[in-house]
Specification:
single chain, 512 residues, alpha+beta, 6-stranded mixed β-sheet, 16% strand, binds glycine, binds manganese (II) ion
């Protein structure tokens, strides 16, 4: 789907930019032919070395330490590598660490990895060991058993440690300190004069400017996610459970080469469509309800993030359509602002204007600039129904840094979501401060709330910006109402293919 069209032309044709030939119907791609997505270039030792060197250029003398992710807390849980560590080393094993000692312009780098252990490897799979890690990265490697004692001795002779994660003084029961924070906190207790400086900003700046090899991975993650949304649209129907759709989506991810979901898949029907990060996924859905799906794949380590919202029965009611059209207009207004040097401010203003005007038209707020009493201050009324940010970068993490968040603004190397939403929660007015102004507002707006309640709509696409221009990479998942309704009229997953008895028992026994 690489194309050399100019930025504006690409934006103008965004609706069909990702639309491959729908006539070919290979199995597993939901009736869509896979477009010629560029093959991602390998990310090898030289690119990792260049990333480390760019980071080291930013730090002064001292010790740079970056911890990998710890062993999973329980057996059999999947291991997730710390994205900063992965970005700098490419090493995917747990309990690893990277240490660079910088003095007078000279740098000595060492990687710490788990020892080989044939008995454990029988259960857990192979490990690189020190020689494997050295071969893979070109870095000197030592045992991760030595990591803490090495840091302890380095702290005796170096005044400054640079690290992306700062020690934490938060000892509250729910603090859930990361492994790295615990180690640094312990080191600081032992060496009170040790200064720990954050390199988080430096790493974020580097990670925020994606190479073509990274953008090509993101494109594939996004495309696979769009295929899964297509299949969900074809398959959803009344009587299905949210978890059936969730399972179907995650199956499509893996079937197309993704590692799995990039984050907990959100599949919310009816009232659940208004819960922003709904995770339970165990409600039976019905005709007349909205279904909001925020689910996307991770491919070769890179995350997508895609949301579609549609009626369970495949035809928008007038009220669902009214809300949907406002959100779609807000998304299009925001994306029309993307150009070299544009800022999120410009995108936000464009989207907010559509949301405020639309909610006013439906009588859900008193006016575009209307406010309500929130605590000791006043808040915009439209925020009662749009509670989150407009978008964010995607990359090694689903919420990744992006160059568009820096003063230089949008430019090549960027991959972001744009995801406005409107959520008409039945309890939207229940927790407001009890003031005369709020009471009067609630009385005025209550009829509209009752009319539109339980409609949740978010539309989230990923935009990839490289040297050729900007592309709505998730365009294969329809977002126009007519296109959604057309796709939903196709036959998807066959309801008869599941065990109706077992599903029915689950439905009849909500306490279980
Ligand atoms: N899926 C999380 C988000 O949209 O940011
Ligand atoms: Mn998102
Ligand atoms: Mn999302």
């Amino acid at each position: 789907m690489r194309r050399s069209l100019h930025l504006l032309l690409l934006l103008a044709t965004a609706a069909c930019a990702g639309a491959p030939n729908p006539s070919a119907q290979p199995a597993g791609s939901a009736g869509y032919e896979l477009p010629p997505l560029p093959e991602p270039a390998p990310i090898g030792a030289a690119e990792y070395a260049a990333r480390r060197s760019a980071l080291l250029d930013q730090v002064g003398d001292g010790v740079l330490v970056v911890f990998g992710g710890p062993l999973p807390a329980f057996d059999y849980l999947p291991f997730n590598q710390n994205p900063d560590f992965r970005y700098l080393t490419g090493i995917m094993e747990p309990a690893a660490g990277y240490v660079a000692v910088k003095r007078g312009g000279r740098v000595v780098e060492t990687l710490y990895v788990q020892d080989r252990d044939p008995a454990r490897e029988v259960w857990e799979g192979g490990r690189l060991g020190q020689s494997g890690a050295q071969q893979r990265t070109g870095l000197a490697a030592r045992s991760s058993q030595e990591l803490y004692t090495t840091l302890d001795s380095l702290a005796r002779v170096h005044a400054v440690f640079h690290t992306p994660v700062l020690p934490s003084l938060d000892a509250s029961p729910g603090a859930n300190l990361a492994h790295a924070q615990q180690v640094l906190t312990r080191l600081r207790e032992k060496h009170p004069s040790l200064e720990v400086k954050s390199v988080q900003g430096d790493i974020r700046r580097l990670r925020g400017a994606k190479s073509d090899a990274e953008l090509d991975r993101i494109r594939r993650a996004v495309y696979i996610s769009a295929l899964a949304h297509r299949e969900a649209m074809r398959s959803a129907h009344a009587g299905m459970n949210e978890f059936e759709i969730r399972a179907l989506i995650e199956y499509i991810f893996r079937r197309n080469g993704a590692e799995g979901p990039a984050y907990g898949s959100i599949v919310g029907s009816g009232p659940n469509s208004t819960t922003l990060h709904y995770q339970t996924s165990d409600r039976f859905m019905d005709n007349g309800e909205m279904l909001l799906i925020d689910a996307a794949a991770s491919y070769a380590g890179y995350a997508a993030d895609v949301t579609r919202s549609f009626p369970v029965d495949g035809t928008f009611t007038a009220d669902q359509r009214a809300i949907y059209e406002i959100v779609l207009a807000a998304q299009k207004a925001a994306e029309s602002q993307i150009r070299p040097g544009a800022t999120w401010n410009a995108l936000n203003e464009a989207a907010n204007e559509e949301l405020r005007n639309g909610l006013t038209r439906l009588g859900l707020i008193d006016g575009p600039a209307a406010e309500y009493d929130c605590g000791t201050s006043r808040c915009p009324q439209y925020r009662m129904f749009y509670m989150h940010g407009l978008g964010h970068g995607v990359g090694l993490a689903v919420h990744d840094p992006d160059i568009s968040q820096t003063p230089s603004g949008f430019g090549p190397g960027s991959a972001v979501t744009i995801e406005p939403g409107i959520y008409i929660r039945a309890d939207a007015f229940d927790h407001l401060s009890d003031t005369p102004g709020n009471r009067a507002m609630i009385e005025r707006l209550r009829p509209a709330l009752e009319r539109y309640r339980d409609i949740g709509v978010r539309i989230e696409d990923v935009f990839v910006y490289d040297s050729r221009g900007i592309e709505r990479a998730s365009a294969a998942a329809p977002r126009e109402i007519a296109d959604i309704e057309a796709l939903m009229s196709e036959t998807g997953l066959d309801a008869a293919s599941r065990s109706a008895d077992m599903v029915e028992w689950f439905r009849q026994n909500p306490g279980r």
